[in-house]
Amino acid sequence: MARLACVPDFYAAHIANMRRGLKDGFTQPGLIVDEMLRPLQAAVDTPVAEDALLKPFASLPPSIAPADQARLRAEAGRLIAEKVRPAQRAAVKFMREEYRPAARSTLAGRDLPGGEEFYPYLIRKFTTTDLTPEQIHAIGESEVARIKGEMEAIARSTGFTGTIAEFNDALRAGSVNCPD
């Protein structure tokens, strides 16, 4: 119950952090915000009785008396309805009305304030390389081209004449006979 009671603080802390990001010019790309909004809105729209937060209450230990189990389930449902849902609705409202309109239209980390310095810093921090973003991007493009070429060769070896996306769909459907 204590954890459920803290869920509104979780949302409030994230909203405060995002407001700081708005003030400092550090926002997520709009398409990321849109992807974040989908599950958040779905959570708001889920009936309380079906909320995933209630799953731990579905099978309480037999050492808890049935009446106490019912009381705990009811209390958890009340917390979700009275505390969690309003916090989730506030988060959706904030995301739609404040954050999404100010979200970046680009994906690149270099588009953030100080991004030309920040992006190489992140590369050094999270990898073992001293390559530049441009070098890493070139490697990525080369690898995508190489892999795509291999995929096309495999598709053609089966006699498939469509696109790679169509080939992948055919593989999923089991309608392609791959050579041994």
Computed Rg: 24 Å
Integer count of domains = 2
Instruction: Calculate the mean pLDDT score and round it.
Output: 93
Number of strands: 0
SSE arrangement, N to C: HHHHHH
Secondary-structure-derived class: mainly alpha
- Approximate helicity band: 55-70%
| Ends apart, CA distance between termini | 57 Å
Percent of residues in β-strands: under 5%
Shape: extended
Number of DSSP helical runs? 6
Uncertain runs are none
Describe the main β-sheet briefly: none
Could you explain how this protein is built, in words?
- The chain is mainly α and 180 residues long.
- It folds into two domains: 2-107, no CATH class; 108-180, no CATH class.
- Helix content is 68%, strand content 0%.
- It has helices at residues 2-24, 30-45, 66-102, 115-126, 133-157, 164-173.
- α1 packs parallel to α3 (66-102).
- The chain is extended, with a radius of gyration of 24 Å.
- It starts with a helix and ends in a 7-residue tail after the last helix.
- The relative contact order is 0.10.
- The mean pLDDT is 93.
